[in-house]
Amino acid sequence: MIQTYEEALSWIHGRLRLGMKPGLARMEWMMEQLNHPERKIQAIHVAGTNGKGSTVSYIRNILQEAGYKVGTFTSPYIETFNERISVNGKPISNDEIVSLLQVIKPLAEELEETELGGPTEFEVITAMALYYFGQASDIDFVIMEVGLGGRLDSTNVITPLISVITSIGFDHMNILGDTIEEIAAEKAGIIKWNVPVVTAVEQQKAIEVISTKAKEENSLFYQLGLDFFILDHQSNDGEAFSLKTQTTTFQNLQISMKGAHQVRNASLAVMAVHLLQNSGLLQIKGSELSTGLEKTKWIGRFEEISKEPLVILDGAHNPEGINSLIRTIEVHLKGKDIHIILSALSDKKLDTMIGKLENIAKTLTFTSFDYPRAASTSELYENSSEEEFIHTVDDWREAVNKGLARVSLEENAALVITGSLYFISEVRSYLKHTRI
């Protein structure tokens, strides 16, 4: 029997050996054994290639500002494992992790003896989250972030109040498919019968797939740019904008997170909350909505970790994320010399990502970190133009220290550390304990 937090994490992470096994049969089996906790929650389901975490955070803060108690299930974690299961932004305790695993572990071991096979790490954590939220009678809403895809993701055992699809991009193509249409179909798999869908997807072929699925499921479909509109967007210390829906205009909204992509994420959150309010499922004042938006922060997303020297952390882990990062740099770091440190996973489109970064970098340093799928520095370098301003440093701590020293000596420079969110997690912890 698991008795300590350390034993719990060790057992959970040990499930990584099972890899990814898409499908809902194991989750459905566990939910049946647990008396269906997924049916006891009022859920909001968020899928998409990029922007899921930020959108979850915007929705949570809006609801929380209105006095609701909100559970969230997110991944990956940046600071602590426990943050994957949080209430009002506060991770559950170590003791609660242990108690949850004492319930889920025996089920996982029993399931392993069946023809379905044992649950993966993510399935175990999802089951823990749903059991926790299902048992908590004082939680008003639960926002569930999809781990991978949607249709076969372990979170897809829920039937939510509303579904949100943030964006579609080329990521996890070995699992989700090689075309925008195939990837969109996987994301659209979260759409349930008669449950409204809100999206900021931009590609027409992806929109056609999602809207077709919505029609099949008798689900009302709301598309940014067609059914609700961003107006008067201006960049300042964050971003300012207004949002027009079919019935309401939300004036002078302000967010502290930077980038046009964050305006889209915030707009999705506002529209989702607006539709839930129109359905009588919640009550929120305009001031609560605007305050919730402005309070929202999401670590590791264009996060200014230091002002002098200027250091930005951004988990841009795929080409679409890199595009958003570059656009944000061009607006908010205009005129500065940009020094970039990159560490990415080897299954990403490295040549595309690196080529884009080369266009804006004064220096570009490749490094690596201890993670099974992390690309080596030589692999990153081989996907670059191999120009003189490109460097490799195997030890990521050394790369960070060199980067800090470089921008400290320049008057108009910024250090941007980007790539895998797992990498950003390690760097953030290191910098938080280092005197910059």
Protein model, in words:
There is one protein chain. It is built from 15 helices and 17 strands. By secondary structure, it is of the alpha/beta class. An eight-stranded mixed beta sheet has the order 4-3-2-5-1-6-7-8, sandwiched between helices. Strands 12-13-17-14-15-16 form a six-stranded mixed beta sheet. It has a three-stranded antiparallel beta sheet with strand order 9-10-11. A hairpin with a 3-residue loop joins strand 12 (about 305) and strand 13. Helix 2 (about 25-35) runs parallel beside helix 5, helix 4 packs across helix 5 (about 120-135) and helix 7 (about 180-185) packs parallel to helix 8. It is globular. The mean pLDDT is about 95.
Quick overview of this protein structure:
With 436 residues, the chain is α/β, with parallel strands linked by helices. It is built from 15 helices and 17 strands. Helix 2 crosses helix 4 (94-112).
CATH architecture of the largest domain: 3-Layer(aba) Sandwich
Instruction: Provide the CATH superfamily of the largest domain.
Output: Mur-like, catalytic domain
Radius of gyration: 21 Å
Number of helices: 15
Q: Mean pLDDT, nearest integer?
A: 95
